[in-house]
TrEMBL record:
<dbReference type="InterPro" id="IPR026877">
    <property type="entry name" value="DXPR_C"/>
</dbReference>
<feature type="binding site">
    <location>
        <position position="219"/>
    </location>
    <ligand>
        <name>Mn(2+)</name>
    </ligand>
</feature>
<keyword id="KW-0464">Manganese</keyword>
<feature type="binding site">
    <location>
        <position position="203"/>
    </location>
    <ligand>
        <name>NADPH</name>
    </ligand>
</feature>
<feature type="binding site">
    <location>
        <position position="219"/>
    </location>
    <ligand>
        <name>1-deoxy-D-xylulose 5-phosphate</name>
    </ligand>
</feature>
<dbReference type="InterPro" id="IPR036291">
    <property type="entry name" value="NAD(P)-bd_dom_sf"/>
</dbReference>
<feature type="binding site">
    <location>
        <position position="150"/>
    </location>
    <ligand>
        <name>1-deoxy-D-xylulose 5-phosphate</name>
    </ligand>
</feature>
<dbReference type="GO" id="GO:0070402">
    <property type="term" value="F:NADPH binding"/>
</dbReference>
<feature type="binding site">
    <location>
        <position position="197"/>
    </location>
    <ligand>
        <name>1-deoxy-D-xylulose 5-phosphate</name>
    </ligand>
</feature>
<comment type="similarity">
    <text>Belongs to the DXR family.</text>
</comment>
<dbReference type="InterPro" id="IPR036169">
    <property type="entry name" value="DXPR_C_sf"/>
</dbReference>
<dbReference type="InterPro" id="IPR013644">
    <property type="entry name" value="DXP_reductoisomerase_C"/>
</dbReference>
<feature type="binding site">
    <location>
        <position position="150"/>
    </location>
    <ligand>
        <name>Mn(2+)</name>
    </ligand>
</feature>
<feature type="binding site">
    <location>
        <position position="124"/>
    </location>
    <ligand>
        <name>NADPH</name>
    </ligand>
</feature>
<keyword id="KW-0414">Isoprene biosynthesis</keyword>
<dbReference type="GO" id="GO:0030145">
    <property type="term" value="F:manganese ion binding"/>
</dbReference>
<feature type="binding site">
    <location>
        <position position="15"/>
    </location>
    <ligand>
        <name>NADPH</name>
    </ligand>
</feature>
């Protein structure tokens, strides 16, 4: 079998390193052509020594010299502006986009324009520019396969089904570390508490998003674009065990669910092997050990970010990009202990109310609105 040639954008992160674990298990199936990181040049250099890619890029130029001196036999590049070029390298079959935030958008777009198979972890790409990405997808031979666990579950439930038969998607949410907190307790939340996700070990930004449930809001927007469904047909439900990764209810009342331990290697390998499956050596569910699978409604009052995200997609245009940029700034400032936890939804709400652009959507104005919103959000914080 011909090896799948991979470019992993964000190879030093949580998803990137797990993708490399999969490549390590399957040296006969994957060849690593390109790796990128932002600042962690030491880990990137180790990855280069192990996987020997033809290209390596460090987006933070400060670390170019360190990286260049640490590796040989690989083309070393620096600067975030070159990420889309890595995503469209002619020798690459599959782009695994595990960058975090808006920084991943242009690479997704470019990978699709150049006809790649795109295994997409970077949900923010679809949040900010879903309309542009889906328009490019229909024009090219590219494939867009979600890595996000819920969307992978949806895709797996939809194999062999007709899209017309979907009544609704049930997107599950763990509820994060503050599921049982009162609104008063939420006022005192610390960074350490918010980074302590009950089920998943992930990068810092998505872990904070899970705690505010903005993650679920972003994922509803992601599902809206991936499966071409109105937001009203995507219902979030709290499932604290994170065993059911999502469900589809069909027009005859039947529902399908995809289950498994909370382990991102499963959706990652599914995206890489789709439409086939590759074996994966990872822990299995023990079905003899009884475990309760429970469900609760989402408390939209305690987690206002979910509604803000749903409203932003209903508003359309640039609103989701404003939501995303304000959230990225608020999360970063919270992680730096510069604002309180409860300020995160406030900053997003105020940005959405004040930044409006009615122009038709394109990449350049998307970049401008992202920049403008970031600057506005920092101003509110001041
Ligand atoms: N982790 C998970 O389990 C899941 C993650 N996702 C999504 O996948 C994406 C990646 O998440 P995760 O792996 O947790 O994130 P991490 O923070 O762990 O990793 C992010 C990666 O992107 C690089 N990076 C960070 N900032 C920039 C930037 N400005 N420009 C270019 N590269 C950058 C980092 O480099 P460096 O290490 O040098 O900083 C790192 O390689 C996110 O969109 C997230 O929402 C979705 C579902 C599950
Ligand atoms: C693993 C994954 O896909 C994350 O997006 C996960 O869903 C986060 O958990 P929450 O359900 O708490 O947002
Ligand atoms: Mn998810």
């Amino acid at each position: 079998m011909k090896k799948q040639k991979l470019a992993i954008l964000g190879s030093t992160g949580s998803i990137g390193t797990q993708t490399l674990e999969i490549a390590r298990q399957h040296p006969d199936k994957f060849e690593i052509v390109a790796l990128t990181a932002h600042s962690n040049w030491e880990l990137l250099a180790e990855q280069v020594h192990e996987f020997n890619p033809a290209y390596v890029l460090i987006s933070n130029e400060e670390y170019y010299t360190n990286l260049k001196q640490a590796v040989s036999g690989t083309k070393v590049m620096s600067g975030a502006e070159h990420l889309p070029a890595i995503a469209s390298l002619p020798e690459v079959d599959t782009v695994l986009n595990s960058l975090v935030g808006f920084a991943g958008f242009e690479s997704t777009l470019e990978a699709i324009r150049s006809g790649k198979k795109v295994a997409l972890a970077n949900k923010e790409s679809l949040v900010v520019g879903g309309e542009l990405i889906m328009a490019e997808l229909v024009k090219s031979e590219a494939q867009l396969i979600p890595v996000d666990s819920e969307h992978s579950a949806m895709l797996q439930c939809l194999v062999g089904e007709s899209m017309d038969d979907i009544e609704k998607i049930i997107i599950t949410a763990s509820g994060g570390p503050f599921r049982e907190f009162s609104k008063e307790q939420m006022q005192q939340v610390t960074v350490e508490q918010a980074l302590d996700h009950p089920n998943w070990n992930m990068g810092a930004k998505i872990t904070i998003d899970s705690s505010t449930m903005m993650n679920k809001g972003l994922e509803i927007i992601e599902a809206h674009w991936l499966f071409d469904l109105p937001v009203e047909k995507i219902q979030p439900v709290i499932h604290p065990q994170s065993i059911i990764h999502s469900m589809i209810t069909f027009i005859d009342g039947s529902s399908k669910a995809q289950l498994g331990l909370p382990d991102m290697k499963v959706p990652i390998i599914y995206a890489l092997s789709y439409p086939d499956r590759f074996p994966l050596d990872t822990p299995r569910m023990n079905w003899n050990e009884a475990q309760n699978l429970t469900f609760e409604p989402v408390d939209f009052d305690k987690f206002p970010c979910v509604r803000l995200a749903m409203d932003s997609i209903s508003k359309g245009g640039y609103a989701p990009a404003v939501l995303n940029a304000a959230n990225e700034v608020a999360v970063e400032r919270f992680l730096n202990k510069e604002i309180g936890y409860i300020h995160i939804p406030e900053i997003v709400k105020e940005s959405l109310a004040n930044i409006v652009l009615n122009d038709s959507l394109n990449t350049e104005t998307l970049k401008e609105i992202d920049k403008e919103t970031r600057s506005y959000a920092h101003t509110i914080i001041k």
